[in-house]
Amino acid sequence: MAPVNDEKRRIIEELERTxxxxxxxxxxxxxxxxxxxxxSVAWQKNRWVWLSFMAFFGxxxxxxxxxxxxxxxxxxxxxxxxxxKSFAGTVAGQLWSVAWTVAKPALIALLARKMGKKA
Length: 119
Description:
By secondary structure, this protein is mainly alpha-helical. It has helices spanning 2-32, 35-45, 47-63, 91-118; strands spanning 72-73, 79-80. It contains four helices and two strands, in the order αααββα.
């Protein structure tokens, strides 16, 4: 009976030691993954670097050209779609829309069947 108790005691001590090691590793990992704390420390240590980078980035953005948007208006003052820009309004666009509406459920069923075979 004594060897069984010694074996149990050895296993219990090994489990306690492993749990202690895991607790220490978890605490270290928690400190490494605390991004809010890490960011605040980096901000406090290198505030001028961060502010300089933000100012430079803002200056670069201010130098980019503006995006111009052309607006087409008909004779009566209403908006019109830009010429040649609408694929959905063409016959090919309408055919593609119908084909995709029909083919989409079939493709989903095919993919589901193939994934079901793998699982």
